[in-house]
Amino acid sequence: MERGGDDELSAWLDYDGDDGPSLPEGSSVDPEQPSVEEGSGDPEEPTQKNTHGRSKRNDITKMVSEGKKMEIEYNHYRQHWGTGGTAKVTRIGAWVRTNIPLRYITWPKVSQDLKNQLWEHIKVAFDVPNTDKRMTIAKGGDRWKDWKSTLTEGIFTFKDVAPNLLEKLPKLYEKIINLQEWREFVDSRLSPEFGVKRKRAQKSRACNLYPHRTGRGGVRMIQEQMEKEKSLNGL
To answer: Bias category Acidic residues: which stretches (predicted)?
Structure first.
């Protein structure tokens, strides 16, 4: 049996009832993740309760309601960092999970209108220059892809040992995913075509010993900045 390697997967499968999966031994719960309590049933299958869901950063919502914006700091790679940067990434992640349908195969297939909506959403809460739009949209793609990867990990974890769990919406996301959309996503992940793609990606990752840390959006920004500097210096 494959098992999820972190608390997020366990929290995602936070079903009410005796069919809830047990937490990995020695796990600790992230304060931004749903809390988990052991039920009174089978000790190997504790009931998980008290889900408060993903962090929505209500402090930012309050700040926006007061007409204020959070400032963002950038490093020499033009990547946002610090408190403002963390808050921005959190807000991006919450927005894409809520507004980008799972039916899109890849981020480039997502409509430009939705990407523009993401940018407008971020501008309301953060003091960002227009040059940050490309980086923001790229980060949206990263967070959306990470979310789909989390869902996919859960599907492959329980598809053989507890396929009945996949008939239900993950409780952590039941308010933002349509049941029909979820079942179509599960079917797409269990298709032979995706199985081939997944194995190819796993093989590729196994060969990648030195993954870069700046991201595609960051690399593009750095390259563009270098070209500008060359132009200004007459090179």
So the answer is: 7-19
Q: Is 0.70 topped by the overall pTM?
A: no
Closest CA to 92 of 68, 72, 77: 72
DSSP string, 12-60: HT--SSTTPPPPPTT----TTSPP----SS-TTS--------S---HHH
CA 29 from chain centre, in angstroms, equals 18
Residue 74's H or E segment, with its range, is strand 73-74
pLDDT tens-digit readout, 188-215: 999 999 999 888 888 888 887 665 554 4
> Following DSSP, what letter does each residue of 111-143 receive, concatenated?
-HHHHHHHHHHHHHHEE--GGGHHHHHHHHHHH
Closest CA to 88 of 119, 53, 122: 122
Question: Beta partners for 80?
Answer: 74
**Model confidence pLDDT, tens digit, residues 52-90:** 445 556 777 788 877 889 988 888 887 877 888 999 999
